[in-house]
Amino acid sequence: MSKLLAVLGATGLQGSGVVNYVRRDPELSKQWKVRAITRNVDSDKAKALREKAEVVKGNATDRAALAKALEGVHTLFAMTTPVFGVDDPLEAEFQVIKTIADVAVEQGIQYLIFSTLPSCRDVSNGKYTGVAPFDAKAKGKEYIETLPIKSSFYCPGSFMKTLPLRPCLLHDRIPTKVIHGFSPAT
Ligand SMILES: NC(=O)c1ccc[n+]([C@@H]2O[C@H](COP(=O)([O-])OP(=O)(O)OC[C@H]3O[C@@H](n4cnc5c(N)ncnc54)[C@H](OP(=O)(O)O)[C@@H]3O)[C@@H](O)[C@H]2O)c1
Questions:
Q1: Residues 86 and 137 reside in one and the same domain
Q2: From ligand 1's centre to the CA of 176, what distance in Å?
Q3: Which domain holds residue 170?
Q4: Domain identity same for 85 and 149
Q5: In tens digits, what is the pLDDT along the chain, a chain of 186 residues?
Q6: Which of 50, 83, 114, 124 is deepest in the core (most CB within 10 A)?
């Protein structure tokens, strides 16, 4: 019988990459059923997912809704987005990660794959302290590692699909014409 893989962010870049990879792989698609979790099951992206996955409503900031969305799940792929407009964006995103991880444990999920990033604060020996999306995900990884759940961590470079949004990184603006650290397209 196939196992259930839940994907947070399935309507976005990373999560859709996970859904598509599993669906396209002959072996994985036999072994796993995919549940896409979205805050809005009626969005165009969510509707487009219906032919690839079970699409269910869930919100990483709403514990009860997330618990319901994760019922019966074997493995969870989790990602988070930065939190803007708050006094402490690091703590705000970390609390979302903590909620996801705590609910995963409570729901008896066996395996949690979390999309993390390195801590800029640590890598720079404390020089750069304001890179909340990185530091929050690093803190989230550390927290998950303390929990009674099997876990793995994916640490992406910059997404190729977002490269056009950053013209300063396009090759004709870089003297060496070499760009390191980009993930394959999702
Ligand atoms: N861009 C890069 O080069 C890069 C590189 C490394 C890491 N990152 C990190 O990647 C993250 C963004 O990932 P992405 O580009 O895959 O995202 P994205 O395409 O912007 O999509 C965001 C996804 O998050 C879901 N989401 C947002 N808030 C949610 C909530 N409260 N509960 C449940 N789902 C929620 C959205 O689902 P619905 O709207 O359907 O609910 C959507 O699927 C950021 O944290 C960034 O730091 C980015």
A1: yes
A2: 31
A3: 160-186
A4: yes
A5: 899 999 999 999 999 999 999 999 999 999 999 999 999 999 999 999 999 999 999 999 999 999 999 999 999 999 999 999 999 999 999 999 999 999 999 999 999 999 999 999 999 999 999 999 999 999 999 999 999 999 999 999 888 888 777 777 666 655 554 444 545 444
A6: 114
Kindly give the distance from the C-alpha atom of residue 178 to the centroid of ligand 1, in angstroms, as a whole number: 27
Token pair, residue 99, equals: 């909620």
Compute how many other C-beta atoms are within 10 angstroms of the C-beta atom of residue 24.
Answer: 10
Do 58 and 95 lie in one domain? The reply is yes
Tell whether 17 and 76 lie within a shared domain: yes
**Tokens at 106, concatenated:** 């409570």
- Whether 73 and 123 map to the same domain: the answer is yes
User: Token pair of 116, please?
Assistant: 């993390």
- The binding-site residues of ligand 1, defined as CB within 6 angstroms of any ligand atom, are 8-15, 38-40, 43, 46, 59-61, 79-82, 117, 133, 156, 158-159, 162
Structurally, how many domains does the chain consist of? 2
- The pTM (predicted TM-score) of the whole model is 0.92
In a shared domain, residues 48 and 119:
yes
Per-residue buried b or exposed e for 51-71, using 16+ beta carbons within 10 Å of the residue's own CB: ebbebbbbbbeeeebbbebbe
